[in-house]
């Protein structure tokens, strides 16, 4: 699910770890990647990226992401 206009170029991603329950992770995307994520969401495709998972309050954040792709 993509975030609203107040968080432009931010994405809310449902992430499934190999072990444990799914969690919501927020990531700030580069403009090109953001629009690719919008298209992926519209077409029910998954995105894959690598980054550093951190926690800020009650939110999980993915920072320093790389290797963004749509599958």
Provide structural commentary:
By secondary structure, the chain is α+β, with helices and mostly antiparallel strands. It has 1 helix and 4 strands, in the order E-E-H-E-E. It has one helix at residues 31-42; strands at 10-15, 23-28, 47-56, 59-70. Strands 1-2-4-3 form a 4-stranded mixed beta sheet, with helices on one face. Strand 3 (47-56) and strand 4 form a beta hairpin. The longest helix is centred in the middle third of the chain and has 12 residues, at 31-42. The chain is globular. The two termini are 16 Å apart.
Summary keywords:
four-stranded mixed sheet; single chain; 1 helix; 4 strands; alpha+beta; 71 residues
Terminal Cα span: 16 Å
Largest sheet: 4 strands, mixed
% residues in beta strands: over 45%
In helices, the fraction of residues equals 10-25%
- Average pLDDT, to the nearest integer? 87
- Structure classification: alpha+beta
Total helical segments: 1
Rg over CA atoms, rounded to whole Å, is 12 Å
Shape: globular
**How is the largest sheet built, in terms of strand order?**
1-2-4-3
Low-pLDDT parts are none
Tell me how many strands there are.
4
Compressed to H and E, one letter per element, the order equals EEHEE
Please identify the oligomeric state: single chain
């Amino acid at each position: 699910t993509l975030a609203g206009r107040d968080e432009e170029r931010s994405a809310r991603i449902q992430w499934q770890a190999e072990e444990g329950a799914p969690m919501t992770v927020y990531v700030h995307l580069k403009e090109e990647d953001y629009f690719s994520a919008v298209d992926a969401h519209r077409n029910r495709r998954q995105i894959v990226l690598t980054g550093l998972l951190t926690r800020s309050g009650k939110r999980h954040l993915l920072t320093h992401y790389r290797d963004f792709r749509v599958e």
